[in-house]
Backbone:
């Protein structure tokens, strides 16, 4: 059974903290994606990566960075968490080809207080 | 920039009726369009993919159409059931994978 695993289901962090969200996939997928989801705004792409050490900005990269040191792992980093980064964060992976679907993790509900 | 819009935030229908959801896109010429289902508190799950030269694709009670002239896809659920209640998202993939904001479907018994 294919799997995308996010390290935490729920997280509570303080303003100004450095936050790491981890995502691991076991399908040998080239692509990995990080999204945030907020009511009424849908899934918004933060960053994606199509290969190890490669990263591309999505639509809302400000305040975030990413790391992909190994093919199976894609980390999202909030350098200095702020309350407006409170959200549901979703990781996904897929093969490179356009006609292939994405597989999602279960999501991390991050609250910044 | 590329943009995907879905027709409304919420759609309420009676059990047994056909639900029709709309997805429109701009500034893009995709070869494929995808549809996903998302249940509360969970990640989206892939349902169907349609190619640009396919007018229609079916999977059980699901039907998707793709009109590249109108830049629109329609997603139909026939003989809808309360278990079909969820948020449905359309997506385009070309390098990055972008989603519409989703349509929340509620099927009442």
Residues:
């Amino acid at each position: 059974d294919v799997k995308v695993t996010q390290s935490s289901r729920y997280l509570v962090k303080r303003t100004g903290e450095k936050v790491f969200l981890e995502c691991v996939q076991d399908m040998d997928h080239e692509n990995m994606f990080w999204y945030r989801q907020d009511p009424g705004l849908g899934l918004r792409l933060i960053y994606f990566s199509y290969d190890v050490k490669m990263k591309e900005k999505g639509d809302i990269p400000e305040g975030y960075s990413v790391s992909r040191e190994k093919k199976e792992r894609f980390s999202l980093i909030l350098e200095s968490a702020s309350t407006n980064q409170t959200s549901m964060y979703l990781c996904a992976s897929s093969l490179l080809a356009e006609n292939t679907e994405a597989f999602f993790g279960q999501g991390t509900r991050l609250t910044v207080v | 920039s590329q943009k995907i819009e879905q027709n409304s935030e919420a759609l309420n229908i009676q059990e047994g009726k056909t639900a029709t959801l709309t997805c429109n896109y701009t500034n893009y010429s995709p070869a494929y369009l995808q549809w996903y289902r998302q249940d509360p508190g969970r990640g989206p799950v892939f349902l169907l993919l349609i190619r640009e030269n396919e007018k229609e694709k079916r999977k059980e009670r699901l039907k998707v159409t793709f009109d590249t002239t109108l830049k629109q896809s329609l997603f139909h659920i026939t003989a809808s059931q309360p278990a079909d209640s969820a948020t449905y998202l359309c997506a385009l993939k070309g390098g990055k994978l972008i989603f519409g904001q989703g349509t929340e479907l509620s099927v009442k018994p």
Summary: Residues 37 and 45 of chain B are 5 Å apart (CA to CA).
